[in-house]
Amino acid sequence: MKTTKSHPKLLLTGAAGGLGQALRERLKANCDVLRLSDRVAFGEAGHNEEIVLADLADADAVNTMVAGVDAIIHLGGVSVEGPFEPIMQANILGVYHLYEAARKHGVKRVVFASSNHVTGFYRQSETINADQPPRPDGFYGVSKAFGEDLSRFYFDRYGIETACVRIGSSFAEPRDRRMLASWLSFDDLHRLITACLTTPVLGHSIIFGMSDNAVTWWDNSKARHVGYVPQDSSDVFRDAVYARTAAPDLNDPAVQFQGGGFVKAGPFQ
After folding, report:
1. How far apart are CA 60 and CA 100, in angstroms?
2. What's this model's pTM, rounded to 2 decimal places?
3. Is the CB of residue 91 less than 8 Å from the CB of residue 233?
4. Which H or E element spans position 142?
5. Dist. CA 198–CA 226, nearest whole Å
6. Residue 22 Cα to chain centre, angstroms
7. Continuous H helices in 38-174
8. Less Cβ crowding at N or C end of the chain, within 10 Å?
9. Which uninterrupted H or E stretch holds 205?
């Protein structure tokens, strides 16, 4: 997919995280100015960049962060399973603050980093699509399911279009056998975000964030209107992954369910 400058100014939240760092240079092709945000300082702004620090739990800071942008790629928040309170502050209260700021400032398109952990309690022997109900595998998955519902409300009530991208496992290469199904390359993630930013009518769309992997649990046929065509595949890593990993224990819940180790995390008290 050709990358076009679809918006004058884009906001990337969670810019200091792993995916934020992977996307920082790539997203400059999508805009004239890229505004970067995270909770704590992460360096100086580069060419055609702005940096606005904001804690997602701080409504005023989020309002300032969103002012003047044309679209949002929202990666910010807690990205792993853990105790409920920090997840609530960043991923539940924080996403509410983000959408309220978008409403107030007239931002009409958001790419929301949801997660495969929204559906983590489906089995690895199943193939699911976007019509099937959430089955979160922990507090983190619950928070992302909330974000999907909240973004649906802001679309239905205020017309803010959102792509809820249920990111699988986005790393330089798959780390284990589970990721042969869930892997999303950095370049395909950028292709997916580009498709979400440029499709004429996005609406409220749920899209599974995966590359063109031969083994897959997810059916993206409900999101063909977005125009995402992955070009990478975990298949080229299969032999290496098998060589360095043991055969799976089929009695292990992390092997039985799509959420992997998240289904076993906690309790945290």
Report:
1. 11
2. 0.97
3. no
4. helix 139-158
5. 8
6. 13
7. 59-66, 84-87, 94-105, 139-158
8. C
9. strand 204-209
Name the band, by pLDDT with cuts 50, 70 and 90, for residue 2: low
Q: Which of 96, 99, 122, 140 is catalytic?
A: 140
Quote the CA–CA distance of 155 and 179 in Å, as a whole number. Answer: 32
Cα–Cα nearest to 144, from 20, 253, 259: 259
**Cis before residue 267, ω within 30 degrees of 0?**
yes
Polymer length of the chain: 269
State the architecture of 7-264 in CATH terms.
Answer: 3-Layer(aba) Sandwich (3.40)
Q: How many helices (H) and strands (E) does the chain have?
A: 9, 9
Residue type, 98: L
Q: Give the max Cα distance, the chain.
A: 53
Strands (E) in the chain, as ranges, are 7-13, 31-37, 49-51, 71-74, 109-115, 128-129, 161-167, 204-209, 218-219
How much of the chain exceeds pLDDT 90, in percent?
A: 98
- 3-class DSSP state of 12: strand
85 Cβ contact partners less than 8 Å away, ≥ 6 residues apart: none
Query: Which uninterrupted H or E stretch holds 114?
Result: strand 109-115
In Å, what is the CA distance from 135 to each residue of 48, 84, 109?
41, 17, 26
pLDDT > 70: what percent of the chain? 99
Is 140 in the active site?
yes
Dihedral sign for Cα atoms in the order 131, 134, 140, 146 = positive
Question: Would you state the pLDDT for residue 1?
Answer: 52
Cβ atoms of 144 and 115 closer than 8 Å: yes
Q: Radius of gyration over alpha carbons of the chain, in Å?
A: 18
Q: Under DSSP, is residue 236 helix (H, G, I), strand (E, B) or coil?
A: helix
Q: For the chain, which residues make up each domain, given as ranges? A: 7-264
